[in-house]
What does this fold into?
Amino acid sequence: MKILIISASELHGGAARAAYRLHKSLLVAGADSTMIVQKKCSDDPTVIASSSRIKKIINELRPALDHVIMKLVGAKGLFSSSYLPFSGILNKINDLNPDVVHLHWVSGGTIRIEDLAEIKAPIVWNLQDMWPFTGGCHYTGLCEGYKNNCGKCPILKSDKENDLSRKVFKRKIKTYSKISNLTVVGVSNWISNCASNSFLFKKHEIITIPNCFDVNVLKPIEKNISRDLFGIPKDKKVILFAAVNSLGDRRKGAVELFKSLELLNLKDVVFVIAGSSKPENELKLKYPVFFIPPLLDETSLPMMYNAADVVVVPSLQENLANSVIESLCCGVPVVAFNIGGNTDMVDHKVNGYLANKFDVQDMADGITWVLNNENFQDLSINSRQKALSTFDSKVVVQQYLHLYSQVIRERII
It folds into this structure.
């Protein structure tokens, strides 16, 4: 069984990490897995990217060019038209002649929508966000245009029916109709439900399989060791907010979290922001703030999470946030809003706290409940156990191997 995983990158961003973790887990399980990326960040020989110096430069520019185009059309959030041609990835896919092509996050100029219909092997497509079934946005907010045909896109600030989102949507309709063997995998129950209600995927069977994590790397570590590494006080309780572009992406919920912090009545607390360098303008918050810049290696992640007593994930819309599961793997309870895929990970008052949707007071209450909990050790144990039972790579990879075998059998039949 020859598996080919396709992703924009193997390390840059949460979706990239999820794809790479699966790839590595497949290799450990003895599977023949190869990964193709547009931008390679590691020296892993099983990850393939263009070796040509000119193409490397072009591939570096493709995401930026895709971003510039979207800014020119007025996008006020992440929006991908996936129209840039000549990435070269389609030819690589067909030249390798895999039994299964497993798509992950393939925007940012990685592959053109129309090229998907030219892939010769059966396709498995992981829904790391909503883009595969929308007219271009990656998260829809309150918009439900994806259930019909998009148009009047809020991300584009458009009041036109036949705007760019409608045009991208039509391109997907035309392309998907040409793909004879496509299996859709939602990594959370929430996104699987969204996909099943979408116009583009409503006739597909949607399978739910979570992302996988190496629990032998992401594990509990002595907190004082972790705090020494990042210069965080040992005699304080630590609230951690960890997300890619944590202060720049409105969807990550920093505004709501800051409001919750102001409502806390706790002493001896510090606040740590991970995934963002210290901003030029000082944050005026109730508690001392420490910053941890983006971390690319897996070894540093458990050190970061284990520095915390609680991890807060205040996202306004979320699929299956890596930060939640990474926290659980390290035995750190999580406080999050009761939205999206969070219910797949956080069991209320068992391994964390699910606050009412966008209720900043309830989020503050949740943080207090965790930090002052007399049974904090039980919360920590339950967090680790949840990760072991549901998200351990050894558990998840078997589900994917079964799926691949089924897809290949159906192709032969």
User: Anything to note?
Assistant: The chain has a mean pLDDT of 93.
